[in-house]
Amino acid sequence: MFSPAMIRQCLKCRVCLQPARAYSVVPPPRDPEERDMLHRMLRVDHAGEYGASRIYAGQMAVLGRSRTGPLIQEMWDQEKKHLEKFKEILSENRVRPTALLPLWNVAGFVLGASTALLGKEGAMACTVAVEESISEHYNSQIRALMEKDPERYTELLQVIKEFRDDEMEHHDTGLEHDAETVPGYWLMKNVIQLGCKAAIYVSQRV
Asked: Region 79-95: what's the mean pLDDT?
């Protein structure tokens, strides 16, 4: 099956002799306290990406055939990738998702559709508010992990930073596409962000 030359090359390489990684992103918790911290963090990140995906679904239901449709679809596709990654991480680490997913399913879609009914500017204002909230939340997680043990959480930090950057790109896209011109922009933004903070709080715990 294998020639002597192939065996010698394999022994030189030694890659297959290295111990396999026990995890892909999240290190095994060292104690119950760390386990609880990681589970809360992953649960709310999954919930946030799920809610964001449902918001874009609502926007597409209203504006999918408009000129803004391709732009919303592009941002939605990124959110879908984020959501799939957190689904994978939750499954790998046996973390239960929040019990409130059915609520975020409906609330996210309704928020996306209702703001899109105000036109492109309403949809973009919603995007700015939500993505700014998610980015700030990711930044707080990054600070917490950096303070705790940056080397231990290298892979998780990479994932969160990458997703944070995507969310900030969506935020900037919203501003570039006239989000601030919708009537009542600042009121809308503050109300949506208040709702986001409440959703983050309860999703960590329920």
From this structure: 93
